[in-house]
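Help needed: design a sequence for this.
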């Protein structure tokens, strides 16, 4: 009798977990990310003269998401991303005391995600994203002598990426996600105040990362379907 009860409980657990990512389910939730970095480096600027400079940065992101499972373990949908970052360079000598870059972007895009379940309540996922949106960059320069200058650039950006992570399902309708890295591409075009000659800046880059120092957590609800 005990073996029958244990088998029944295990079977029900498998059915509940598998139903979370079954065809017809709605995925509703989002993720938050945060990272910070500090670094001190020394630079030889003249014979017998070593300059110590400092760098620190931080970033925060929030990404609400809604999707639909076209097939078991395969979801597609839309997302909105809000991201901001700040980088500060501090100089020991030279004409500048400090320079700060503040960057913010809002993006809207599409995503596709595939789940690979190892056990009924735990597995991995991999996803593709692509989005566009406006962005803004503010550069503040503090000289050792003189007036602080502030230059603002506005423009647009395009981003695409491949991301992966682990998924844990504590209940039939709730999923917790932890991002562990990915491959991304970003292209930005920023325009400054033409009257001051700030001009236009264009950036594009590929990046690959494993989240060893940053945090990316997601909370999702799995609604509807047959479960």
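Sure. Designed sequence:
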């Amino acid at each position: 009798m005990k073996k029958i009860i244990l088998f029944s409980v295990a079977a029900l657990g498998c059915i509940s977990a598998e139903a979370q990512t079954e065809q017809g389910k709605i995925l509703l939730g989002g993720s938050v990310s945060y990272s910070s970095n500090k670094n001190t480096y020394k630079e030889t600027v003249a014979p017998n003269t070593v300059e110590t400079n400092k760098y620190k940065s931080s970033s925060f992101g929030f990404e609400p998401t809604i999707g639909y499972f076209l097939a078991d373990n395969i979801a597609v949908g839309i997302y909105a991303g809000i991201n901001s970052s700040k980088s500060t360079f501090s100089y020991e000598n030279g004409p500048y005391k400090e320079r700060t870059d503040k960057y913010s972007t809002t993006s809207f895009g599409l995503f596709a995600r595939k789940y690979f379940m190892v056990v009924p309540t735990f597995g991995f996922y991999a996803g593709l994203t692509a989005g566009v949106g406006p962005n803004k960059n503010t550069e503040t320069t503090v000289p050792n002598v003189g007036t602080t200058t502030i230059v603002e650039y506005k423009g647009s950006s395009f981003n695409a990426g491949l991301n992966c992570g682990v998924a844990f399902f504590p209940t039939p309708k709730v999923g917790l996600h932890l991002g562990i890295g990915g491959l991304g591409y970003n292209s930005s075009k920023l325009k400054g105040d033409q009257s001051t000659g700030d001009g236009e800046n264009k950036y594009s880059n590929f990046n690959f990362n494993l989240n060893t120092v940053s945090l990316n957590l997601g909370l999702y609800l799995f609604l509807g379907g047959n479960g």
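The domain at 2-224 is CATH 2.40.160 (Porin).
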